[in-house]
Amino acid sequence: MSITLLIAEDQRLFRQSLRLLLECESDLNVVAEAMDGREAFDLAMKHKPDLVLMDVDMPKLDGVTATKLIRACLPDTKVLMLSVHDEDTRIIAAVQAGAFGYILKDADHAEFLRIIRATHRGEHVLSPFMPDRFARSAVAAVEEARGAEKPFLSSLTEREREILSCAAAGRGNKEIADQLCVSIETVKTHLHHIYQKLSVNGRVEAVLAYLQAK
Known about the structure:
This protein is 53% helix and 13% strand. The chain has a 5-stranded parallel beta sheet, with helices on both faces. The protein is of the alpha/beta class. Helix 7 (158-168) crosses helix 10 (203-213). The protein folds into 2 domains: 3-146, 3-Layer(aba) Sandwich (Rossmann fold), CATH 3.40.50.2300; 151-213, Arc Repressor Mutant, subunit A (Orthogonal Bundle), CATH 1.10.10.10. The chain is elongated. It has helices at residues 12-23, 37-47, 63-73, 89-96, 109-120, 132-146, 158-168, 173-180, 184-198, 203-213, and strands spanning 3-8, 28-34, 51-55, 78-83, 101-104.
């Protein structure tokens, strides 16, 4: 069975070149490409890929926030961050947000493919072309992220998490209802239950609490 991938990268040439590289491999299948973070979230929800390759620097919705939303709605989808920087503190933020690891954009062909396949198997593999000190920090962030979820999020149902993540992506009630194929009243009811469970006064506070907890 092939590994399904979503590429989220705003630079068209790099994105298309990466797709050509990946699709030369018989076990890799690129199901979609995203030009910004919001599109990455939308396409991830549509295709439910095994793996998302997410650039840290993304327009409309940054890579860290997009990763939070994708991981909240699709816990079985792994995210690998892409970065040109080997000491970018946003990478640490990304793995704390749920990213499985990251790859430097100057990694060679073989190493890039090795990391993708290892990630799909559930192995934490970091790009080897970075300072040991930063790599150790990233590993620590990954381990911290695995047990850092705030207890109150566990009180939400899967549907409530899905609706809250959509709200965090900037969608209104009608957009959420259309995406999830439910009525606006159903969305409002779920949001009311979410506010009660999180002990917040409304949508803004709920979204802020959600992002802080992921």
